[in-house]
Amino acid sequence: MFVGFRWIDVFKGNFDVRLIDVAHAEVNIVQYENGAINILLAKNTQNDSSSSSDTSSINIHLKKLLLEDVTIKYLQTADSLLAGTIIDKLEASILADSQQVSVSLNTLAEINVLFKKETSFFHDKKLKLNSNIDFSVAEKTIRLTDTHLMLDKAAFGIGGEIALRDTTFLDLKIVGEKPDFSMVTAFVSPEFVDAFNRYNNSGNVF
Q1: Residue 90: is its pLDDT beyond 90?
Q2: How far apart are CA 159 and CA 143, in angstroms?
């Protein structure tokens, strides 16, 4: 891992990081039956509101985050759900202050989900995501703009808001950019893709 920044900016409360470069790494996240998460326990931050500090004067600008060949695994011990993603390449920039967090993201990855050690229908799925994400601290709202998702060969445009208040509220518009059978095969097991592809030129999907 490589991190590049200027000490003078840190002393001024401005975390102006030029580059964080992570390659050939693996992250294992485990959520136990009581809801505790291993990495939060390791940092002693699980449900610890007393450790929060005043970050009103801190500004963070990460000009470039680069991940290459990074595997992330998430395990829920209560139901033996294992989700994993292999990030071939991810490039992001992050701008954050006390009021808002803005992220520009481009990524290529592969997603696999297992349930009780059995492979689910959602495995070996290729994902490409380009998105601009803004989080308003005061409104507790995530806004997605200029977001495009490719899942295998299916292409979707996504826009809207997610409100993270007492009740999570989603106001998202998802549009299929290619109205064909790729929109169906993206959500079935790869073993059945060939069967669906027989109808690939038989019409549109609405």
Answers
A1: yes
A2: 8
